[in-house]
Amino acid sequence: QVDVKESGGGTVQAGGSLRLSCTASGRTLGGFAMGWFRQSPGKEREFVAAISWRGGITYYGDSVKGRFTISRDTAEREDTVYLQMTSLKREDTAVYYCAAQPLTTPYVVMTTPDYDNWGQGTQVTVSS
Predict the structure, then answer these.
(1) Nearest to 21 by CA among 102, 122, 90
(2) Is the pLDDT of residue 77 over 70?
């Protein structure tokens, strides 16, 4: 069983910054490819960013390129992924979900919502 937990959501003014955190824990033969998605009311879940298990390979959705940065810290026992969000816009308002997929292939980035394990989501609200 894999446990995924997000934290760090909140309300921020347009132009501001916010950092989300996500931890994935559980048994795996390799490591976790991890990603962030978001969903706002009436819209489909949108890909935001993803990072490989090893090698720090990253990929971003077009709407966040140049503003968001995904990174990970594997030094601790739990694998932690961060999403640093800058120059936030009102259209970034959404529930942000973290996802984790146990893999034995280290350099895979998953950009579609085919993950088996999801967090509960954290609300990000950008006000004008």
Answers:
(1) 122
(2) no
